[in-house]
Amino acid sequence: GRGSWDDPVLRVGPSMRVGYCAQHQETFDPAATVEESFLKILPTRREVQSHLSTFLFGYDDLDKKISSLSGGELNRLQMARASALKANFLVLDEPTNHLDIPMREAVEDALDGFEGTVLVVSHDRYFLDKVAERVVFIEDRRFIEYEGSFAEWWRDLGRPASSGEKAGKRAVGLEGRGRAVATGGGTADGGAAESRAMESRALEDAINAMERQKEEYERKIAGAFDRREFKLAKELAAELERHNARLDGLWRRME
Questions:
Q1: What dihedral angle (degrees, nearest 10) is formed by the CA atoms of 188, 140, 170, 122?
Q2: pLDDT band at residue 1 under the 50/70/90 scheme
C-alpha cells in the first residue's frame, strides 16, 4: 500500500511471514504503549516482557508510549516485533540506524543465526559485509546479481563490464571504465584521450562528493523523524529527491 507501483498488487506467498523494519520506524502507532503494541502478537504481559528482555527492554519500558522512544529503541522494537511474528522473510530498511556498536553487533549475530531470508537495504558497509551472502543491484529496472561479497561489489561498483554480459559476472570498477572511455574507439589522438580521462576523473570526484551529500541528507531526515519534526523531514526528503536526480545524471554521464 506504499510507494509508486505500476501494479498496485504485491503478492506474498501463503507460506511467507514477512517482518518489516522501516527506516523511519512507522510500523507502530505512536499513541500506543509498548505493551499494547505487542499484545496484538503475544498473548500475555509476561510473555511480552520475556520476549522484549532479549532486545534489552526492561519491565518499566512496557508502559512507555511509542512516541517517547528514541530512534535506537524504535529500531530494537521493530526487530523484536519481527522476531515475535516468527517471520521467515525479513525486510530491513536501514536496520542499524541509531544503534550503538554493541547493539549493531547483536543485530549482526541475530541475523547470522536467522534461518529465513533477509532483504536488507543499508548504507552501513561493514554491516552489509557481515550479513550479506548475495548482492543484487538494480539496472534498467532489472535485478542483477553480483557474484562475490559486498566488499568486492563495493570495490567494483557492481557494474557489468558490458550490456552483453550475463548477470552475475564479475563487474569492472570505476577506474577501469574510465580507461575504457579514454581509449574508446581506438581512433582518438592522445590529446583527446587525455581530455576524456580528465573529464572522467572530474566526474568521479563530483559523484563521490554528491554521494557524501546524499548520506548527510539521509542523516538529517532520520534526525528530523526522531525529533518528530515531520514537516522538516518532508522538506528534506524533497531536497534529497532533487539531489538524487542530479546524481543519477552524473552516473549516466560517467557510463
A1: 120
A2: low
**Stronger pLDDT, 65 or 27, i.e. the higher one:** 65
User: What dihedral angle (degrees, nearest 10) is formed by the CA atoms of 134, 27, 243, 203?
Assistant: -10
Distance, in Å, from the CA atom of 128 to the CA atom of 240, rounded to the nearest integer, reads 23
Phi and psi angles of residue 174, each rounded to the nearest 5 degrees, phi first = -60, -40
SS3 of residue 60 by DSSP: helix
The Cα–Cα gap between 85 and 107 comes to 17
61-88 CB burial, b ≥16 within 10 A, e <16: bbeeebeebebbbbbbbbbbbbbbeebe
Nearest CA to 157 among 207, 109, 82? 207
More confident residue, 156 or 191: 156
pLDDT per residue as tens digits for the range 46-88: 999 998 887 888 888 999 998 888 877 887 888 788 888 888 9
Name which of 178, 179, 126 is nearest 154 in CA terms. 126
CA 99 to chain centre: 15
3-state secondary structure 68-91: HCCHHHHHHHHHHHHHHCCCCEEE
Alpha helix ranges (H) inside the chain: 34-38, 45-53, 71-84, 101-112, 125-131, 150-156, 174-183, 190-226, 230-254
Reduced to 3 states (helix: H, G, I; strand: E, B; else coil), residue 16 is: coil
Residue 87: CA count within 13 A, CB half-sphere: 21
Q: Residue 195: which residues within 8 A CB-CB, separation 6 or more?
A: none
Q: How far apart are the C-alpha atoms of 63 and 132, rounded to whole Å?
A: 36
pTM above 0.85, yes or no: no
Q: Pull the grid cell for residue 190.
A: 592522445
Cell numbers 577506474 label which residue?
175
